[in-house]
TrEMBL record:
UniProt-listed InterPro entries: Flavoprotein-like_sf, FMN_Rdtase-like_dom, ISF_SsuE-like
Name of the protein in its database record: NADPH-dependent FMN reductase
Keyword DNA repair annotated: no
Species in which this protein is naturally found: Thermodesulfobium acidiphilum
Pfam families: FMN_red
Amino acid sequence: MIFNGSPKAGGNTDFLIDRFTTFLGERDVVKFVLREMNISPCRGCEMCSISGRCVIKDDMYDIYKKIENCKSFLFFSPIFFGGVTSTLKSVIDRCQPFWARKNILGKKFENNNRRGLIALIGATSFLKGYECAALTVKWLFNVIDVAENRTLYYMNIERHSDFLNYNIDNDIYKTIEFFGESEE
Ligand SMILES: Cc1cc2nc3c(=O)[nH]c(=O)nc-3n(C[C@H](O)[C@H](O)[C@H](O)COP(=O)(O)O)c2cc1C
């Protein structure tokens, strides 16, 4: 599962994801461009603590179904004010039913050999902003039983050419290797 948390079409996050998906090619990849989906923020109604389901019927239901069965999770987000974008944060907050199922209703995921990647893109080199965003996604990983994860920080990225300061091909290679290990 690939999550694109950027609200900007054709921006730096799209560029990076295109590089990754070109390599991933034939694999069974499903990409969620969150800005194109209708996903409301969590209302905090706590109905999921009773039913294990969200009362808001929107595109998040496509994501819920996939999260249940998926083994590999790739999250891409620009840094906005020292965190992930509100586009992605809404999706993370809407995963509260998984928290409720696990911690209140006592249900476990069948597949617990899961792995995740967090790729964060920002215009500055202010590390704390990246760490804060990474922590938010790791919090979700903890809830959905993604035990192993790796994080990539792409700092000082204002335009596509700034990625030339990074060895993206190597990052992709290492990522594929990392996800491959979980299948052995
Ligand atoms: C509202 C807003 C807030 C931002 N806040 C930060 C920030 O806190 N730290 C940072 O490094 N970059 C920040 N940036 C810069 C973006 O993270 C950066 O330009 C990124 O490459 C944009 O990715 P995109 O083209 O996919 O939207 C911010 C940009 C916007 C529009």
